Amino acid sequence: MQINVARLQNEFPDEKIEYFDQVGSTNDVAFTRVQQNPGIAGMVVANQQTAGRGTNQRQFYSPTSGIYCSIYLPLAPATVLHPGRVTANVGVIVAEAVHRVFGQPLGIKWVNDLYLHDQKVGGILCEAVSNDDNQLIGLVLGMGLNILTTTFPQTMLRTGGPIVEQANATQVTDLLIKINQAIQKKRQTLASDAINPKYLDLSILQDQWVIIDQVASRLTGKVTGVTPENELLVNDGHQLRTVTNGRILRWQAEPLNDFD
């Protein structure tokens, strides 16, 4: 979708703001900017991505009916990064900004999906940037939002949907401003901040029965929360399991014997 680039730049005069009608991946561009100019903060926004990425390098469908943004921040080499916390907190920031601008109550599906009711409407992808000496120099916070997107590839595991039925450039610009304002307020501590307590309130998996694909096996159980590092806690009926990765195949409020 189109935005007001001049307004965005005026709002953040000390940052490098770039807008592309089409780009491979906003995260890739932001990653390169950090490597080229360590110490500089900025934002890469696109109307469309041709090589958008999600978790585990999965394709992130990115047509012109959405907005795709990667905010990059410099980090000191001595920074202790907690990626799970960052992903959770950025998810809360985006969900709250969407609610303020569009009035829509988004939920978060572990680990980085944004949902409106039973439809996926966005995703978060946070990536650390290191220099040639393997020292941490920056953080890229990527987000893709299906503002008006109504058609999706049949290969998607979950049904996608739009955030709203109508939106304009002013509203989308407002959304990006609110997201970046919230992130900039946290820029000095974002890498290590504890998970925002609102995260569990927004979690659509809390107290749900789930099936998780863990490549070599499947785990079924009830979600009881997350660890301080945003690992999923699942009671499988015998013990409390800590899940660090995996794909949520299904979730529901009823007990496991109601699963097909």
SSE blueprint:
Layout: H1 5-11, E1 16-20, H2 26-36, E2 42-46, E3 67-74, H3 83-102, E4 107-109, E5 113-116, E6 119-130, E7 136-145, H4 169-185, H5 198-202, E8 209-213, E9 218-226, E10 232-235, E11 240-243, E12 247-252
Parallel strand pairs: 1-2
Antiparallel strand pairs: 2-3, 3-7, 4-5, 5-6, 6-7, 8-9, 8-12, 9-10, 10-11
Domain BPL/LPL catalytic: 21-142
Organism: Pediococcus acidilactici DSM 20284
EC number: 6.3.4.15
Description:
With 260 residues, this protein is α+β, with helices and mostly antiparallel strands. It folds into two domains: 3-199, BirA Bifunctional Protein, domain 2, CATH 3.30.930.10; 204-250, SH3 type barrels. The protein has five helices and twelve strands. The strands form two sheets. It has a seven-stranded mixed sheet, sandwiched between helices. A five-stranded antiparallel sheet has the order 11-10-9-8-12, with no helix packed on it. The termini are far apart. The mean pLDDT is 93.
